[in-house]
Amino acid sequence: xxxxxxxxxxxxxxxxxxxxxxxxxxxxxxxxxxxxxxxxxxxxxxxxxxxxxxxxxxxxxxxxxxxxxxxxxxxxxxxxxxxxxxxxxxxxxxxxxxxxxxxxxxxxxxxxxxxxxxxxxxxxxxxxxxxxxxxxxxxxxxxxxxxxxxxxxxxxxxxxxxxxxxxxxxxxxxxxxxxxxxxxxxxxxxxxxxxxxxxxxxxxxxxxxxxxxxxxxxxxxxxxxxxxxxxxxxxxxxxxxxxxxxxxxxxxxxxxxxxxx
Length: 261
Hints:
By secondary structure, the chain is mostly helical.
């Protein structure tokens, strides 16, 4: 592709069944700007009209053609095509109905405070509020889900609190709560690991070769001078005797091991 024919960005397509005209139109106009297609480079509007119509899927193109009757859609001026589609796809806005939607909105489960604030701002677009930021802040606070974030915001001075500060504050409280919960989980995990490690160390400790207990070393055993009652050998108790004679013996006598100097 030569430099002269190259274009910037991705040219969007429009399906009126699944997309909104307002968003599509904004993207298309930005594509025109990126590629320097305007009233100067396209004085007649033919190029912009052709590009616009080519972005419509079959069903939407047919709808546009029907709206243009008795004229042919490809003969209608670019600006008129825009107005034709605008009037059809963008319903007339009634201020009070839009305000009702705005004031009825509440934060949804799973919706972050940042998303909640963004959704509110979108709902306020056609409400024609005199002081948009104040109304946004108030609805943001009143529509918040119960929790520490709302409790914290409700303690703030309204004279100094803006929507931006309210969102920042709720995010800070949320982060602090998550860190605290994570720290508690880490401590619990550490305790469990310590317990497992301790138990592993205890089970891995060698038994004393003299008496068989594992709470001391062989060299420190107090029974080191005792004689085995089976083999009569010195340096271990009967239960630790490993001689063939002792293993095979059927000794019915269970007397104590003998101490000798």
